[in-house]
Amino acid sequence: MFIAIAHPAVEPQGPDAVAVPGSPAILELPPRALHARLLANAALRRMRGLERRRAARPEDADYWLQAAPVAVRKASALREERSFAPLP
């Protein structure tokens, strides 16, 4: 029995998000978008930490509350590394 190997209609170009053919490629974010994403991650980590604290899970809460400032430090370092042009 002969089985033809079909190629996907879309071939990924550049780095692949999950190393699976057809998955979206990882896009290089502009500095402002990366900065906003880092700050959003920090806010989500803090909210998760407070949620864990309310659920009486102090170990989890401590982890997430200590992880939030790391994202803020990364955002600050990015802002210092690349000068952002003023918004119009």
Describe the secondary-structure layout:
Layout: H1 31-54, H2 58-81
Report on this structure.
The chain has two helices and no strands. Helix 1 (31-54) runs antiparallel to helix 2. By secondary structure, the chain is mostly helical. It has a domain at 31-81.
Number of DSSP strands? 0
Which percent range describes the beta-strand content? under 5%
Report the helical percentage.
Answer: 40-55%
Tell me, what's the shape?
Answer: flat
User: Treating each run of at least 4 consecutive H or I residues as one helix, how many helices?
Assistant: 2
Distance between the termini: 64 Å
Brief synopsis:
The protein has helices at residues 31-54, 58-81. It is an all-alpha fold and 88 residues long. It is flat, with a radius of gyration of 20 Å.
List descriptors.
flat, single chain, 2 helices, 88 residues
